[in-house]
Amino acid sequence: MELEDRKSKILTAIIRNYLETGEPVGSRTISKFTDLQLSSATIRNEMADLEEMGLIIQPHTSAGRIPTDKGYRFYVDQMMEARKHEFDDEKQLLLQRVDRMEAALKQLAKVLAANTNYATLVSAPTYTQNKLKFIQLSRVDEAKVLAVIMTQGNIVKSTLVDMNEDISEDDVLKMNVLLNASLNGLSVDEINLNIISNLKTEAKELAPAVEPILTAIAQAIASDKDEPQIYTSGTTNIFKYPELSQSSSATELIGAFEEKQPLNELVLSSMNKEGIQVYIGEESPFENLKDCSVVTANYDLGDGLHGIVGIVGPKRMDYERVVGTLHGLKNQLDAIYKEMGTKKISGSGIGKDE
Amino acid sequence: MELEDRKSKILTAIIRNYLETGEPVGSRTISKFTDLQLSSATIRNEMADLEEMGLIIQPHTSAGRIPTDKGYRFYVDQMMEARKHEFDDEKQLLLQRVDRMEAALKQLAKVLAANTNYATLVSAPTYTQNKLKFIQLSRVDEAKVLAVIMTQGNIVKSTLVDMNEDISEDDVLKMNVLLNASLNGLSVDEINLNIISNLKTEAKELAPAVEPILTAIAQAIASDKDEPQIYTSGTTNIFKYPELSQSSSATELIGAFEEKQPLNELVLSSMNKEGIQVYIGEESPFENLKDCSVVTANYDLGDGLHGIVGIVGPKRMDYERVVGTLHGLKNQLDAIYKEMGTKKISGSGIGKDE
DNA sequence: GTTAGCACTCGGGGAAAATGAGTGCTAACA
DNA sequence: TGTTAGCACTCATTTTCCCCGAGTGCTAAC
């Protein structure tokens, strides 16, 4: 959308002011606020035009104006265009070094929340495309085998397999060799029915044992592909913004951040979009966020490991700072990854099946 | 504390009524509510006595009475005593079967929250006293070894160990045998400096490799002993109780449920108390909960696996129902455990170290 | 020991009034 | 033709005021 220069300046001034105060902005304020040297009456005329265009709105007669979603969109687009090349990468968030990815991501969400005063979410990296490094089977008892799967990117998954019949220590070893020979280097997506049936043939007398193990492995691998782990922080920050905390959906919002599962939709839809995304109000892929704005950035740790970082706040969020911060963070994550190549990784899990 | 029968009846009536309505209870209400056949004037006299004893209080002159913490305590003690033997174990919560302990515990918190309309927390079982079943080392590359630890109760932990120097496939195998021979059957608490130095002697030329591995293992095992995993649900239920949601600590309360870490104190202090605990207001081990009541039950899955289930609500919570529900749940968990002996267990983890 | 009666207290709710920020419109001005 | 001063008007918000009623404490009678 093109806009007369003066109108654009006035709109920007209105939005800037509203971002700070959260109160409707009147013509007199703008008249003093800008360097346009125009009287409030003139501003009023322009504001009437902007309102007609649907960029600003009056909450009620005799109140100042506040931006509409469309107004914010104009502002954000303009800002993104202008700032494209000059984000302040210097702002390094103090990411304390921690010993596990899980803790690191929690920490990241926390630091971001503390820095921005908005609610944050970080999705743990998913690893489609990720290749198997090795599988290690260990016999636990007569009819149970522990399968440990390690993929590129050094992600470890383990699953305890309930065999249908007893299996000997020897057979487990054979299976181990067989599985590694057949599956090594495959991406997790490539393990399909075809391969399973091939494996069964190769397995010969071990064939009955192959199926439960492969099923369990596939299940363990797939388990969080649809439901990536999400870490959140700063949910309570939304209480700092009356227009959010008093909104009827505040409870739902907090609920969504607690259950995490509802945020999945947001994560999935941002995941395959390059760069930094800004969703304003109704643009959000997720109903409960329609009173908020969401800014997401996707990160890529290589080896097909990627996830997103998101910030949820009121529509009058400080887009400039948030986008800048996320931009810097992306670079920092890249740096961490490079540095990480030679370092160690650890993980743990626990689970019981019916 | 002993109380005249009539006073006790009146106190109980006041509390019962207040639990339902959340409004101060007047003398006339009690006069009609009970089967005592007393006029409101008489009730007033008794109420004055109860107030003097610190069991009830007037929010302001010309208002009815509400129970104090002490009043609730009296009520709860009496109720616990009376109901000691007759909790309705029949109330079976519908626990949908799920494939992993983690999911099961989340589910449990969720179901409890939905059933009680309070906020709930469930701590994942910790396993002090738990004995090692086996350790499986796998060489990942020249200087990295994956250690997978399985304990009784079939809990799996894994950690990627960064060796100080290169290690051969052969040496990993030797280490594997050595570790299992030495550590098998020990409880995780028993792995101490003594054992490590013994192991070093036995390891001979492998000695330099023993230390990083043992350190990593010890660390992986200890990692969530101090910080048990906590699952929460229904935090937003507190909005249903104005006295909580309008309290200044509501934000902190929700924050604590989000960060989870602050709840740890509560978990730890309930963990070593047998049976069902009720904390009323100031009795809570945790500052932020002083406007709430907390009911906790510890569960024991055998093999030293134990944790707690907790319910957090307003002081005017339906203690009777909550205690009953938790009582039933305890039994149900026991049943599940028994049934689980023969079934499979799985888990997964991911982490990166600096 | 119990009860009826009565004066008193005090929070809550609602109406009315005062406030003030901000508008739209008109007429004058450059 | 665009800009501005001026003015009447609107309406959410705040303040004030008053009334109502639930509930109490106390006293005197039963």
Structure description:
2 copies of one chain form a homodimer. Chain A has 354 residues and is an alpha+beta fold. Chain A contains 12 helices and 11 strands. Chain A has helices at 5-21, 27-33, 40-52, 69-82, 101-116, 169-183, 193-203, 207-222, 242-245, 250-259, 264-271, 319-340; strands at residues 56-57, 66-67, 119-123, 132-141, 144-151, 155-162, 230-233, 276-280, 292-300, 306-314, 346-349. In chain A, β1 (56-57) and β2 (66-67) form a beta hairpin. In chain A, α2 crosses α3 (40-52), α6 (169-183) crosses α7 (193-203) and α7 (193-203) runs antiparallel to α8 (207-222). The longest helix of chain A has 22 residues, at 319-340. Chain A starts with a helix and ends in a 5-residue tail after the last strand. Residues 94-99 and 341-354 of chain A have low confidence and may be disordered. Chains A and B meet through α5, β4, β5, β6 and α8 of A and α5, β4, β5, β6 and α8 of B. The structure holds a DNA duplex (30 and 30 nucleotides).
